[in-house]
Amino acid sequence: MPAQLDHIGIIVAKLEDALAFYRDTVGLGEPIIREIPELKLRLGFFDNRGTIIELVEASGKTDMVPGDVVVAIEVDDLDEAIAKYRAAGLKVYDQPPTPNLPLRRGWVPKGGVHGSVIELCLRGEVARFVRGEIKQALAG
After folding, report:
1. Dist CA 60 CA 67 (whole Å)
2. Are the beta carbons of 11 and 67 closer than 8 angstroms?
3. CB–CB of 52/98 below 8 Å?
4. 8-state DSSP, 121
5. What percent of the chain has pLDDT over 90?
6. What is the domain range of residue 76?
7. Which of 61, 104, 107, 121 has its CA 20 to 30 A from that of 5?
8. Which whole-number Å values give the CA distances from 59 to 12, 25, 62, 121, 126, in the listed order?
């Protein structure tokens, strides 16, 4: 199956402010909040059973700034996708699962892809995580 869009991530300065805007002004409904303390991330997901919108507040070290967009691509084989991107000459990080974000992902940083970030995700896993079908550890 060809790669397809999994979700869009938007880096925000203050998660609460962004959540209120996307919930109330844009009309995306109630967000699902996930805390990832080991990565210093706070995530807000809007899941209307279509394309998921993810808002990301990062307090740790990152080269992303508010307004940056992450284009997450769903793939059937993460190892194969990482190898394909590397063979194309791109730097790709292999992000292992963590207790509160139990998903392995690939990352192509924004310097290599026309100014945006590409996230490689196994087909269906982000939606399963957002919907609570893949459990995270208790944050905190």
Report:
1. 17
2. yes
3. no
4. E
5. 80
6. 4-130
7. 61
8. 11, 25, 8, 23, 22
* Cα separation, 41 vs 39, whole angstroms: 5
Taking all residues of the chain, what is their mean pLDDT, rounded to a whole number? 91
Residue 137 falls inside a structural domain: no
How many Cβ atoms are within 10 Å of 26's Cβ, its own excluded? 10
The neighbour count for residue 21, using CB atoms within 10 Å, is 13
92 is written with which tokens?
């790709």
Count of domains forming the chain = 1
HEC assignment per residue over 30-89: CCEEEEEHHHCEEEEEECCCCCEEEEEEECCCCCCCCCCEEEEEEECCHHHHHHHHHHCC
Contact between 124 and 74 under an 8 Å Cβ cutoff? The reply is yes
Phi, psi torsion values for 24, nearest 5 degrees: -90, -45
Position 59, amino acid: S
CATH of the domain at 95: 3.10.180.10
